[in-house]
Structures are given as structure tokens and as C-alpha cells.
Amino acid sequence: MFIGTIAFGQSVQIDIFRLEISERFKDIQSYKMNFPIISSGNKKVGSLINTDLKNRFTDNEYPTDNLDSTLTRWAGDQIVFLGFQVTYNQNGILSINVSAEGCGAYCTSWTDYFNYSTQTGKWFDINSIVDTTGLFREMVFKDKKEQYNEASLELKDVLNDSDWGLTQDEYDSAIDYYNECDNTFNLNQFALYPNSIEIIEECRLPHVMKPLTPIIELKYRFSEIGEYLKIKI
């Protein structure tokens, strides 16, 4: 069911597809079960974006199904929230993220990030936006390393604070996760905003360790990294 359209002037429009609420979670499920549908003046472009977005978000579980069938089968009786945010829709570029929460033994939320050309319908990877082979890459990795080091120091303070009740084993386990996230970091996920680009780094810890999750923020203003940009933003 389509419940409206979000307009962006001369940019593409976003139609909203509302997924039916699961009977299993009707008491806790958010009424917001919304998935974006890109509406372009060019039907081929819109179709390319919508098909790719659907398949990427659902990990290509039902690549030949239409949106309705795919989301119904994919969500099943597990998804309790589905929503999206458009962060950039100018200059032939669409940057949109889709968030979901699913419940099994525990409830887990996550966000995936998508970037497309609204002129061709093609997926944009970060190398299409900014030069990641030189100084920009070095800057991001340096900032990332510093923030993980800071998070590790803060976790050490938590260990030494008896009010927290953090055990040595829990501390060691969290540090192992920090190090793994730090060492496997890449520049794959990003979001564009009117004045900046954000490189997404999410270090996902087990459910019981969620309060120890480090917050890594890697956001850069276009005015600061103009020399590294490959296209007009």
C-alpha cells in the first residue's frame, strides 16, 4: 500500500510503501513499517534503483520477486520496525539509508546505506565520489584509529570504576571486538549530506555487550575535502 510521496523539488521523489504489521508483534511493533520507492521521471532509472535497493537491503534473498512479495517474505514474523531517511537528493545523486529492527531471541536494529545516480540509476561506490587512494584515505584511517584508541581508554576507566561492575573477562572480550573492528575497517559504507560526507563505521558487539559499543564518527565537510572530490556535490 502506498501512503504518500516525499517531494524534493527538481530531484527524484520518494514514494512510501507500508508493510503490513506482523500479527506476532502487534503489541510492540511500530506503526512505522515504511520502505522507500524511488519515483523518477525516467521509468528505467527508477526501476534500476528500486530493484537494486530492494535486493541489496534483503541480501538478494528473493531477487526475482517484486517489492511487495520480497518484503513480505523477508520480514516474515521477525521485523518490528522499518524506516528510511533521505540525506541527499541533489545534483543527480540520491543518498538514502534504510533502518530495520528484527526480533528473535533478542531484538537487533541496524541501518544500511545506499547511494545512486538519479540520472543513470547506477549504484555509487565511494570511489565514484571521492579519491580514496591517497591523503583522504589516510586522514579517515587516522581519525578512526584515534577514536578506537580513545574508546579503549574510556573502557579501561569503566573497568577501574567499581560502580560499573565490569569484569576483566568482559573488558578483554570488548577490547578484542574493538581491535577486530579497527583492523577490518573499510570505506564501503557512506552517506552524503548537503554539506558533508560521513564514512560509516559500526562496531557491532553481542547483545549482552551493547552498552560497551564504541561510537566512531567520521564526518567531513565538503569545504574541507574539496580537493579529493571527484564529482560536483
Describe this structure in words.
The protein has 233 residues and is an alpha+beta fold. The protein is built from 6 helices and 9 strands, in the order βββααβββαααβββα. It has helices at residues 43-57, 67-75, 126-129, 135-160, 168-184, 222-225; strands at residues 2-6, 13-18, 34-39, 79-90, 93-103, 107-117, 190-192, 196-199, 218-221. It starts with a strand and ends in an 8-residue tail after the last helix. The model is unreliable at 1-5 (pLDDT under 50).
Query: What percent of residues adopt helix (DSSP H or I)?
Result: 25-40%
Unreliable spans are 1-5
Average pLDDT? 90
Largest sheet: 3 strands, antiparallel
Broad structural category: alpha+beta
Question: What's the short version?
Answer:
With 233 residues, the chain is α+β, with helices and mostly antiparallel strands. It is built from six helices and nine strands. Strand 1 (2-6) and strand 2 form a beta hairpin.
Key terms for this structure?
flat; 27% strand; three-stranded antiparallel beta sheet; single chain; alpha+beta; disordered N terminus; 6 helices; 233 residues; 32% helix
